[in-house]
């Protein structure tokens, strides 16, 4: 089977390498990207892969959309017609891509995947919204599992609600600490503060545009700001009550 990956960034390359080089029925991969040189570079990493233009007339058993969140629905609309059997996205948000795939590829198998890790840290957990199942999307999930990933099924609502906490709120909390913190000699670090500085380093080692897209896609930062304000304004009794609220959530 033939696979078209729209978007030759790190996640698009990871998906193609995992599926085509893994235990699947896919033997042919093509990349399309607004940056044709990026598509060509991505194709060089997989045996017999190739680059195609964004307006190619070729059709493929499966099309994977691996573009930034803000342009995901536009990419699905533009490329859904090139899928003969299945369409997949790995954009990181579920609601809008799943709806767009249903609108523009109603007769295809449809699968929304969210690898919950940076591509260089694979394998890991992969959230899967199976909107219309079939042999092609099942083959893709098995290929991911065959490369050591834990693929678990979820719903649009559960996925996007979880992302408010595990991405939008988590990133906001870490970046807020990074903005508020001062330089401290290493000998003063506590286990908690050292862990927070490690998280700041990990988060700020990425692409700021990706983190900005996540904050725009999911609510969460305001809740973190409100919680920090409540802690800052609390007297001793109120602080203890807030502390106990967190203890009870563990």
Description:
The protein has 250 residues and is α/β, with parallel strands linked by helices. It has two domains: 2-154, 3-Layer(aba) Sandwich (Rossmann fold), CATH 3.40.50.720; 158-249. The protein contains ten helices and eight strands. The protein has helices at 10-20, 36-44, 72-79, 95-104, 135-146, 156-180, 191-203, 208-217, 221-233, 236-249, and strands at residues 2-6, 28-32, 50-51, 60-65, 83-89, 109-115, 125-132, 150-153. An eight-stranded mixed beta sheet has the order 3-2-1-4-5-6-7-8, with helices on both faces. Helix 3 (72-79) packs parallel to helix 4 (95-104) and helix 6 crosses helix 9 (221-233). The longest helix has 25 residues, at 156-180. The model has no long low-confidence stretch (mean pLDDT 96).
CATH topology of the largest domain: Rossmann fold
Shape: elongated
Total E-strand runs = 8
Radius of gyration: 21 Å
Order of strands, main sheet, comes to: 3-2-1-4-5-6-7-8
Q: What sequence of helices (H) and strands (E) makes up the elements?
A: EHEHEEHEHEEHEHHHHH
Low-confidence stretches: none
Total number of distinct structural domains: 2
CATH class annotation of the largest domain: Alpha Beta
Features:
10 helices; eight-stranded mixed beta sheet; elongated; 250 residues; 2 domains; alpha/beta; 50% helix
What topology emerges from the helices and strands here?
Elements: E1 2-6, H1 10-20, E2 28-32, H2 36-44, E3 50-51, E4 60-65, H3 72-79, E5 83-89, H4 95-104, E6 109-115, E7 125-132, H5 135-146, E8 150-153, H6 156-180, H7 191-203, H8 208-217, H9 221-233, H10 236-249
Parallel strand pairs: 1-2, 1-4, 2-3, 4-5, 5-6, 7-8
Antiparallel strand pairs: 6-7
